[in-house]
Amino acid sequence: MAKAKKVFFCQECGYESSKWLGQCPACQAWNTFVEEMVKKDKSSHVSPLTSSKPVKLDEVSALSERRISTHIEELDRVLGSGIVSGSLILVGGDPGIGKSTLLLQICKNLSHDKMKLLYVSGEESVQQIKMRADRIGTFSDTMEVLCETSIDQIENSILNSKPELVVIDSVQTMYAEDVASAAGSVSQVREVTARLMRIAKQNAVTIFIVGHVTKEGVVAGPRTLEHMVDTVLYFEGERHAVYRVLRSVKNRFGSTDEIGVFEMMPDGLREVVNPSEVMLSGRPADAAGSVVVASVEGTRPILIEIQALVSETSFNIPRRTTVGLDFNRVNLLIAVLDKRAGLHLGSSDAYVNVAGGIRLNEPAIDLGIVVALASSFKNKALDADTIVFGEVGLTGEVRGVSMSLQRVKEAMKLGFKTCIMPKIDYDRVIKDKEDIKGIKLIGISNVSELLSYI
Description:
With about 450 residues, this protein is of the alpha/beta class. The chain is built from twelve helices and 23 strands. Strands 8-7-9-10-6-11-12-13-14 form a nine-stranded mixed beta sheet. Strand 17 (about 320-325), helix 8 (about 325-340) and strand 18 form a beta-alpha-beta unit.
């Protein structure tokens, strides 16, 4: 007989406690514990003895995974050249960012390949899905829609119709009848995801799960949710901005460094084949505080504009604001400029922004942030045909970065005439001078040398 007991779960990280706590010991969040009923049924967790026998690794045959193209090149790149059959993929993002739209576009493309698809929605009616589907395009008769929130009914539908791909929108609206807590709770999300993982692996069905995110930008529910799935994709970007970035933070079948760039249009998401050209469109000419940096996301170099505004503060403590950049990293670079380059920014407000709504975390953009801050502080514009990249250390030295040749070639492709780069990367690239034509390369060793040049 199943026994029910009351436990407390942290809504942020899934930490379990036998009593209510004001602060979570795991994630340090306040007032996040909720009370839930949990049933313990030992018989349901007993697996057959045949499934627990160990096998020799040499006797296991290695099978190459079957890839399915979504006909969306940006998405295929992020997934690692396509969807792996039988995988469980979690798609997270802010409300209205385009998660459901992207998954409907995948279904539209695969329906024309005569794949059997099942779209399960717990948030919208069939009529609402039809209206959104008509806006995206035409679907074939292999696409089926189900409005259901019970995981038991969904499992029966999957086993009866035998689709090749299933979309669950969203996992927070699904519930298992044998779990006493409400839909969207930690227990329900964990149980539903475990059921879906078992369905995907046992029946070789590819399942996409839509997950809501918290105010911190992570998928709501226990952290173990991301460990259970094969791939975790995040949609980034401002809800009211045009461009969206699809980033992989976990992928058992490919790299986690690739990104896909999309543009939100009235008929759905459209791929951005050349992000550098799009991100630099509308860039102001001869504006102080504006500089173009060469960043690399996975195997793709992207040129992005960084803007800085330094003005005399009217407060006792100067303000520091960043958009799309690490706040602490910008403060560190301001301290380097003050100590190593003699730019006293202690009495000035500093605002740094990445144009286009993309977030950058690569160390190679340090040099661009330094140039933008110095340009705004001195009110002197950098040449519009100049691009910079490099990592800056605490002693003011400029360190080398990876894929420097690819960054230079991307700058050449878009017509830049000058490239400021670390001295060590300059020595490496200069060996391939036959490939570098029409662009002037400048090697920099430290921040003082950089400022004296610009």
